[in-house]
Amino acid sequence: MSRPSAPPASGQAPGDPAGAAASAGAAPAPARPADHFADAAEVITRFAAHGYIADTRIATAVFLAERLQKPILVEGPAGCGKTELAKVLADALGTQLIRLQCYEGLDEAKALYEWAYPKQLLYTQILRDKIGELLAQTRTLGDAVAALAAQDDAFFSEKFLLPRPLLSALRAERRVVLLIDEVDRAEAEFEAFLLEVLSDFQVSIPELGTLRAAHVPLVILTSNNAREMTDALKRRCLYLNVGFPDAAREQAIAHARLPGAPARLVADVVRVVQALRQLDLKKNPSVSETLEWVRALLILSADELDRGLCVDTLNLVLKYEGDLERAHEKLGELFPAAGTPASAGRTKPS
Ligand SMILES: Nc1ncnc2c1ncn2[C@@H]1O[C@H](COP(=O)(O)OP(=O)(O)O)[C@@H](O)[C@H]1O
Ligand SMILES: [Mg+2]
Questions:
Q1: 79 CA distance to ligand 2 middle (Å)
Q2: Does ligand 1 have an atom closer than 6 angstroms to the CB of 257?
Q3: Which amino acid residue places its CA nearest to atom 8 of ligand 1?
Q4: Residue 2 main-chain phi, psi, to 5 deg
């Protein structure tokens, strides 16, 4: 997997779990076109240069998706880097990101294209006289309708077409990254429609004909697991589950996102967050919350996280009363102080 030509692992923090592959070699940037990756190791280094810390599993999925021209379905808890993965992929490939945010009720018109109805109406108003002249030559209602229909081309043309994200991605002049974000929020019918688009990357617009993608976009679908995706969609995609990162990667993420943060503070916060995730909470703190916590502690000029500071700021990462209570019960274990009963017989976590 590691090629000597891979650029150095710029921006990677100590203890990066991405492994030796990422740091192998110190040659200059590869001569190959920037819109391809040489291998998974290069995904790691180029992502790191854009502040995204990928492990080998994520990098391999991205590398293969690009090579196989297959969409990736990224599932996992909110706030663990799914959306960011698509953004960074576009940045790393030096291409445009086109985003379709899914929601309940999202339909083809909002995802693919629609006709600019108000504009069409405005034009018919302005061209009232012209249309009147055209219809004046007809005798029956049927003739009038036929005469009007013959002018369809004028009103159902590019001029009145409103491309939505899917169509924009298909018509782009170069390959783009298409992010179909939080696909689990849309209904299953929409998923069926998506499958159609993703299977042949072409759409048929009755008034204009069939449009085929000149450059198949690199598609990333994300899901927060609100509902199970269909087998058909999973079959079509490479599947990637991004869960919570391990401590080393979470620290690396914090350092990448908040370069000025003291190592001790980051290590403390990550240790506590990782421990909180073991507590069977209603809502586990995500990477976003880790970052938010470090950011807040930096504002408070902290260079480490002690028990008092933790008590005062825990509400930044835990948003349910029950979760806060559970966490408070565990503070003794998290911050064992010599002489306190809670710390008796325990070793301080590193
Ligand atoms: N591996 C990572 N490397 C760098 N930043 C990350 C990583 N994972 C998560 N983040 C950061 O965490 C935050 C949440 O990520 P986001 O992609 O919005 O989460 P999701 O889409 O999974 O809900 C963002 O600020 C993002 O930059
Ligand atoms: Mg997201």
A1: 6
A2: yes
A3: 81
A4: -85, 130
Cα 268 to Cα 164: distance, rounded to the nearest angstrom: 45
Backbone phi, psi, residue 308, to 5°: -60, -45
Phi (first) and psi of residue 211, to 5 degrees: -110, 125
Residue 349 has a pLDDT of: 43
pLDDT confidence of residue 276: 97
* Rounded distance between C-alpha atoms, residue 56 and residue 92, angstroms: 16
Rounded to 10°, the helix 40-49/82-93 angle is: 100
Please state the length of the chain.
350
What tokens does 216 get?
Answer: 């198949």
Joined tokens for residue 27: 């040659």
Q: Which of 51, 7, 55 is nearest to 255 (CA)?
A: 51
CA 220/CA 182 separation, integer angstroms: 10
Give per-residue pLDDT as tens, 182-241.
Answer: 999 999 889 989 998 998 899 888 888 898 999 999 999 999 988 888 899 999 999 999
Ligand (nearest to CA of 11): 1
Residue 250 sits at φ, ψ, to 5 deg, of -65, -40
For residue 51, give the nearest of 8, 14, 85 by alpha carbon: 85
Q: Considering only 27-41, 54-68, 116-130, which range has the smallest mean pLDDT? A: 27-41
If one residue of 101, 288, 289 were mutated to test the ligand 1 pocket, choosing by the most ligand atoms within 8 A of its CB, it would be: 288
| Binding site membership of 59 for ligand 1 (Cβ less than 6 Å) | no
Residue 187 identity: E
- Residues 296, 311: Cα–Cα separation, whole Å: 13
* Paired residues of 99 in beta bridges: 179
Over residues 5-11, the mean pLDDT reads 38
Give yes or no for residue 80 CB within 6 A of ligand 1: yes
Regarding the beta carbon of 88 and ligand 1, being less than 6 Å apart is answered no
User: Cα of 51 to ligand 1 centre, how many Å?
Assistant: 10
Q: What is the model's pLDDT at position 174? A: 94
The pLDDT tens digits of the residues spanning 126-156 come to: 888 888 888 888 889 998 888 888 888 888 8
The residue contributing the CA closest to ligand 1 atom 17 is: 81
Domain spans of the chain, in order of start: 1-68, 113-162, 247-337
- The pLDDT score that the predictor gives to residue 336 is 84
